[in-house]
Every structure is written in structure tokens, then in C-alpha cells.
Design brief:
It is elongated and about 105 Å long. The longest helix is centred in the middle third of the chain and has 16 residues. Helix 2 packs antiparallel against helix 3, helix 3 packs antiparallel against helix 4 and helix 4 packs antiparallel against helix 5. The N and C termini lie far apart (91 Å). Helix content is 64%, strand content 0%. With 135 residues, the protein is an all-alpha fold. It is built from 6 helices and no strands. It has a domain of 93 residues: Serine Threonine Protein Phosphatase 5, Tetratricopeptide repeat.
Length: 135
């Protein structure tokens, strides 16, 4: 009789649906480098990035220089010199498309610059190099 009572209680529990799973909440990101950076206009930070980029450029570390110049353009999208230097670094890295885009943005921001004619020649050479089948 005891066995039948235990069996009946066990069968009652076995027929109940399982409880719904508890939703898990992801903890906030702990690694600050994984959080996307938000850029607001900060000319001082842009100037700092440009100076560091110039340091890397002089040391012929063009990839690091390009990264710093790119940061400078994000901190101050109207900083013409940063776009010029970014174009020069990208050109050294043989990234003609990015160099051309940076030079074009430079001319957009500083159309009356003293070196505008030389930059236009560089853009024309980059365009010719991109369409050249030997490249």
C-alpha cells in the first residue's frame, strides 16, 4: 500500500510540465576596449592624434600613422591637415582607394590650399594607377 501511495505521488509530479526557463540577462561588457568609441567634436584630441601620427610617419611606421590620422579625422571631421596626412600614409601603404578618398576630402575642406594643384595631380595619378591593368 505504501508503495502504491509513493508511486501515485511520483506519477503526479512526473505529469506536471517543467517550469519555464528563467531568462538570462547578459552582464554589461567588462572589457572597455570592446565598447565602441563615441566621437564628439574634440579639436584638442584631434591635434594630439595628428602629432602622434606625425611621429609614427617620421619613423616610417605608416600603418600606425594612418590609424592616428584616421582617429584625428573622427575627432574633428573638419580638420583638413589630418585628411592630407591620412592620404599620404595610405599612399605609402599602397592603399590607393583610401588615399584618393582622403585627398578628395582634403580638397573639399581646403580648396584654396597652396598645395591644391599638387594634390589634384596626386589624385589623377592614383586614378590612373587604379585603372592600369599592370597594377
Amino acid at each position: 500500500m505504501l508503495i502504491l501511495a509513493v508511486l501515485a505521488v511520483w506519477m503526479g509530479f512526473a505529469q506536471q510540465p517543467p517550469p519555464p526557463p528563467i531568462p538570462t540577462v547578459e552582464p554589461p561588457e567588462e572589457d572597455p576596449s570592446a565598447i565602441p568609441k563615441e566621437y564628439v567634436l574634440n579639436p584638442l584630441q584631434a591635434e594630439k592624434e595628428l602629432k602622434i601620427g606625425n611621429f609614427y610617419f617620421k619613423r616610417k611606421s605608416y600603418k600606425a600613422a594612418a590609424a592616428r590620422f584616421d582617429e584625428a579625422t573622427k575627432w574633428n571631421p573638419g580638420y583638413a591637415e589630418a585628411f592630407l596626412r591620412l592620404g599620404e600614409a595610405k599612399e605609402k601603404l599602397k592603399d590607393e582607394k583610401a588615399a584618393r578618398a582622403a585627398y578628395e576630402k582634403y580638397l573639399e575642406l581646403a580648396p584654396e590650399a597652396k598645395n591644391a594643384a599638387a594634390i589634384k595631380k596626386k589624385i589623377a595619378a592614383l586614378i590612373a594607377g587604379q585603372t592600369d591593368p599592370k597594377s
